[in-house]
Write a structure and sequence with these properties.
The complex is a heterotrimer. Chain A is an all-alpha fold. Chain A is built from ten helices and no strands. Chain A has one domain: MetI-like (MetI-like fold, Orthogonal Bundle). Chain A is globular. Chain B has helices at residues 56-63, 86-95, 113-123, 133-143, 160-172, 190-207, 218-224, 242-247, 252-260, 302-306; strands spanning 4-19, 25-41, 45-49, 71-76, 79-80, 96-99, 178-182, 210-215, 227-232, 235-241, 327-328. Chain B has a seven-stranded mixed beta sheet, sandwiched between helices. Chain B folds into two domains: 4-225, Rossmann fold (3-Layer(aba) Sandwich); 248-354, no CATH class. The chains are: A mainly alpha, B alpha/beta, C alpha/beta. At the B-C interface, helix 6, helix 7, helix 8 and helix 9 of B face helix 7, helix 8, helix 9, helix 10 and helix 11 of C.
Chain lengths: 326, 357, 324
């Protein structure tokens, strides 16, 4: 029976630093009120950040929509034949660049392949690359950066220098050099390359936000209670440091899908006959004036995917911030 | 004094200053705490006052083992807690808890009040079995004057004073014997400060607590403390019972500090002598030789630069029994009344002769 | 009268609703006079001052009524560029946090000199000389050498002196000091307050001192306005208010601070919290916390009653409070 919370009364974004004296004030709760007579009575189920965040997410339309879009993407990645009956590799050069027609709503691409079928089948590789690269980067980057920020000292300095080195590597050139020696035509070398070059970005952000969180008195308070390092990291620092990582990682997801396209275009990423949005986008881009539909559909699918992940990231981040809950 | 529960002797904390990235070499040290001794009796409140940078907060951190002393001992019931680790340290930690200054950063914004106050039980599960914890947390909320039903709320839904009560409840959870309070009310509004001070007062008798109360506000320290230590640049320069320090200060720094406190009584401004110190507190990396207060002291002589004054009853008062005979680290200690003796403002005499003895 | 604020009303429009920060505040200050505006956080004391200076953030802030008369002219009717001419040259403000109010990448000499470059059109050299002169004025030792130093190289007290120097640069007629000594240590507080009071006398300026510290007020103010929930609840010459407050809030504040010269038992504590500005209680805003509250307090907003020629109290029971 959680009663509705009063609005917090803080004037967000107003004022000029310390000169602003409109502070949080609560209307109904009286400072000296000794609490209800049923001092030990129940106050609803015990709640935690995660259960509250989940409750909040379930009621958030942004979360529901983005989660449905992502679920749909996952399903068609696994079973593309559910919604596309054709064969993405069956092409008819005679129909190259033709527009929409019955049975082929998205038209044909430069090779005369059906754009709709290719877009549906392309989801698998593109979503796999985007999601796996993002997860890998986020995990590796936040663990390394978080630990370095938390413990500081020698390992922190070492890690910072290493990230500096990685920042100096040009992505495309690095891809040309590293991936040209790989012969396998699966997504994994591409994902591995992205994780290798992408983690320093997240690591830097995670390190910074862990250092900020670490300086708060509540960390000291937990330490004074005798909390272990792992407890401090997991209970106190991680929930307070994760927001920027979520935001940057979800934005990066789109970049990875686009990067896959670039690498494929340069001939070091995925190679035909593999189907991916990236390959189709780069193949279609020279014809944007004559046959825009060839670019529009795979690019549109990419945009919707990226948007869904960014919205999901935003919703999760907001749900993890109790101050933003209504 | 009652039986001492905490004895601090020769406490030192130096933070090394280093240069160079690969080959670090020490080029100096920030002498945050530079030889502090005191005792805390059971059920007693020891106030520690001083300006920013005097080392009072570092002392607090060492008492709760957030910082390891460079040298010196902190004996809790005879055992030096600075050298403990593992299990023994955990059990000592249970008995010495801290209340922090800033109620806005000392509570994790992403934990519910129930989780915050219940965390001590998760770290020390032997104190309360799992099923009892929620009830215990609600009892604690009640004890500090908050509605037990607020258990599922988050810190931002409370005002500063209420947050400080939550911090106090967390400090009480393990039923400690000693609470170290570092500026517990200085971030609060005036009308709320009194509520929190009264709460601390009440809890002291209810739970038989001993307090170390650290603050820069001399009036509040006087209100709550049985004994007071005045710190300057990492050392205690004068210590005694509250009336000894406030009514019969013998160290010039204490006198200046007391005279600088604005008194909420416009009548007093005409017949109060103000000692305005020149300059600022020297840097703790470069502490003056001899008496560390001499650079701002109006009484300083050659001897002050050469000899470090010991914290003891000054020679002038050694055989006296009056309130002036208390520990004061000054070569030229003399009594000087800066705070007018207790009188109601209406009756305060206006003759200029009352200014000074 | 140098400055007269009449029935000022300020609102903040936020995500959660409208916060009524200032609800009809009137006060005045004359040349050479010190008015202390006393209040807790959320009382509207700083917002009023920001409105007077013309530095209120609009939006979310909005001035919904009232007049701010400076030398008889309503500043609220001025255009922004006219207002800018008043600001700095005619009235200046000193903030609590000197470190964040100074630009860290410019030397203090440059920052002080800029006032003369911009407002007075002086040459760089003359401006620098003026800066040194100002630093001498606020008794910064070795001003000539230190003029090239950057803000972080000064101590807190010295930085606050630089802020004072900056405020004084163009010899304004009115200074608004918002908690000027709150961030400083007690011994340094006394130095800065003394300096401010002395310079005020020297230049015959009006001073509005915004503070929550009853002690500081007693030391320097001539008259005092106590604010609560965006209103003035009591205004009086400083001696009267400390001797016998005519509003229960003032009385509660005075009784709730521990005194240096008294070791009391339990402190008197005003119960409850200041109200939420989005939901100010009907009647007297203080009524839920007031020990003297009667039915009338819950329904009728008390006007500022005339206690005598110079005293006002917004309490239905000011007589009882004054004599009880």
């Amino acid at each position: 029976m959680p009663e509705p919370f009063e609005s917090e009364g803080a004037i967000s974004g107003a004022g000029m630093g310390g000169a602003m004296d409109l502070a949080v004030a609560e209307g109904q709760t009286l400072e000296t009120a000794p609490g209800g007579p049923d001092g030990t009575g129940p106050a609803g189920r015990p709640r935690s950040l995660w259960s509250d965040a989940w409750r909040d997410l379930r009621r958030n339309p942004v979360f529901i929509i983005s989660a449905l879009v992502i679920l749909f993407l996952v399903v068609i990645s696994l079973w593309p034949s559910l919604i596309a009956s054709g064969n993405p590799l069956k092409c008819d050069l005679a129909k190259a660049q033709e527009g929409s027609q019955p049975g082929h709503p998205f038209g044909y691409d430069g090779q005369g392949c059906d754009v709709y079928t290719r877009t549906v089948y392309g989801a698998r590789k593109s979503v796999t690359v985007g999601v796996c690269a993002t997860l890998g980067v986020a995990l590796l980057g936040s663990v390394l950066g978080g630990l370095a920020g938390f413990f500081g000292g020698f390992w922190d300095s070492l890690l910072s220098r290493i990230t500096d080195i990685f920042f100096a590597i040009p992505v495309v050139l690095g891809g040309l050099v590293l991936l040209s020696v790989v012969t396998s035509n699966t997504v994994w070398p591409v994902i591995g390359f992205m994780v290798l070059l992408g983690w320093p970005q997240i690591s830097r952000i995670a390190r910074g936000s862990v250092i900020t969180a670490k300086q708060n008195d509540y960390v000291q308070a937990a330490r004074a209670l005798g909390a272990s390092n792992s407890r401090i990291l997991l209970r106190h620092i991680a929930p307070n440091a994760i927001a920027p990582v979520i935001v940057v990682a979800t934005i990066a997801l789109g970049t990875y899908i686009a990067l896959e396209a670039t690498l494929s275009y340069l001939g070091v990423g995925l190679k035909p006959p593999t189907v991916s949005w990236g390959i189709d986008i780069s193949a279609a881009s020279p014809y944007i004036r004559n046959a825009p539909h060839m670019l529009l559909w795979p690019a549109g699918a990419l945009a919707v995917t990226v948007l869904a992940f960014i919205m999901l990231g935003d919703a999760v981040r907001d749900a993890l911030d109790p101050k933003l809950r209504s | 004094m009652a039986e001492p529960i905490l004895q601090v002797s020769g406490l030192v904390k130096h933070y090394p200053l280093t240069q160079g990235i690969v080959f670090r070499k020490q080029v100096g040290a920030v002498k945050a705490v530079d030889g502090v001794d005191f005792e805390l009796g059971r059920g007693e409140t020891l106030g520690i006052v001083g300006e920013s940078g005097c080392g009072k907060s570092t002392v607090a951190k060492m008492l709760v083992n957030l910082e390891k002393p460079t040298a010196g001992e902190i004996r809790y019931k005879g055992e030096d807690i600075a050298r403990l680790s593992g299990k023994a340290l955990r059990s000592v930690r249970r008995n010495i808890q801290m209340v922090f200054q800033d109620p806005y950063t000392s509570l994790n914004p992403r934990m519910t009040v129930g989780d915050i106050i219940g965390e001590p039980y998760e770290i020390h599960p032997e104190v309360a079995p799992k099923g009892d914890r929620r009830t215990k947390v609600q009892e604690l909320l009640d004890v500090v004057g908050l509605n037990p039903e607020y258990i599922n709320r988050y810190p931002h839904q409370f005002s500063g004073g209420q947050r400080q009560r939550i911090g106090i409840a967390r400090g009480l959870a393990l039923r400690p014997e000693i609470i170290v309070a570092d500026e517990p009310v200085s971030a609060l509004d005036v009308s709320v400060q009194a509520q929190v001070i009264n709460l601390l007062d009440r809890l002291q008798s209810e739970f038989e607590l001993s307090y170390i109360f650290i603050a820069h506000d001399l009036s509040i320290v006087r209100h709550i403390s049985d004994r007071v230590g005045v710190m300057y640049l990492g050392r205690i320069v004068e210590t005694g019972r509250d009336s000894e320090i406030y009514e019969h200060p013998t160290h010039p720094y204490t006198q200046a500090l007391l005279s600088a406190v604005p008194v909420p009584d416009p009548e007093a401004r005409e017949h109060r002598e103000r000692i305005i110190l020149a300059g600022d507190v020297p840097s703790p990396t470069n502490i003056p030789s001899g008496c560390r207060f001499r650079t701002r002291c109006w009484k300083a002589q050659e001897r002050c630069a050469l000899e470090v004054p010991a914290l003891a009853v000054p020679a002038e008062f050694r055989f006296a029994t009056g309130p002036a005979a208390h520990d004061s680290a000054c070569h030229f200690a003399e009594e000087k009344q800066v705070v007018p003796p207790e009188e109601t403002p209406e009756e305060a005499p206006k003759e200029p002769s009352e200014q000074e003895e | 009268m140098l400055l007269e604020v009449r029935d000022l009303q300020v609102e903040f429009r936020t995500r959660d609703g409208i916060a009524k920060a200032v609800n009809g505040v009137s006060y005045s200050v004359d040349a050479g006079e010190t008015l202390a505006v006393l209040g807790e956080s959320g009382s509207g004391k700083s917002v009023t001052a920001q409105a007077v200076m013309g530095i209120l953030d609009i939006p979310p802030g909005k001035i919904t009524g009232g007049e701010i008369l400076f030398r008889g002219q309503d500043l609220l009717k001025f255009k922004e560029d006219e207002r800018r001419k008043v600001r700095g040259a005619e009235m200046a403000m000193i903030f609590q946090d000197a470190l964040s109010s100074l630009n860290p990448v410019l030397s203090v000499g440059d920052q002080l000199g800029e006032m003369f470059l911009v407002h007075r059109g002086m040459s760089k050299k003359d401006a620098r000389a003026k800066a040194v002169e100002l630093m001498d004025r606020v008794r910064i030792p070795a001003a000539k050498e230190r003029v090239k130093d950057y803000p972080h190289q000064f101590s807190g007290g010295m930085r606050q002196r630089i802020m004072i120097a900056m405020a004084l640069a163009l010899e304004p007629a009115l200074i608004i000091a918002d908690e000027p000594t709150t961030a400083l240590d007690v011994t340094v507080q006394a130095q800065v307050m003394d300096l401010l009071a002395e310079l005020q006398r020297e230049y015959n300026m009006g001073l509005i001192l915004i503070t929550h510290d009853l002690g500081v007020v007693a030391d320097v103010a001539d008259k005092i306005a106590v604010m609560y929930a965006g209103r003035i609840v009591e205004s009086a010459p400083v001696h009267d208010i400390y001797k016998a407050p005519a509003h229960p809030y003032t009385r509660g504040l005075l009784e709730s601070i521990p005194r240096l010269d008294q070791k009391g038992q339990e402190l008197y504590a005003i119960k409850g919290l200041p109200p939420n500005l989005m939901n100010i209680p009907p009647g007297c805003a203080f009524n839920p916390r007031c020990p003297m509250a009667q039915d009338v307090c819950r329904t009728d907003v008390p006007p500022l009653f005339e206690v005598d020629e110079v005293r006002r109290s917004a309490c239905h029971f000011w007589r009882e409070c004054l004599h009880g």
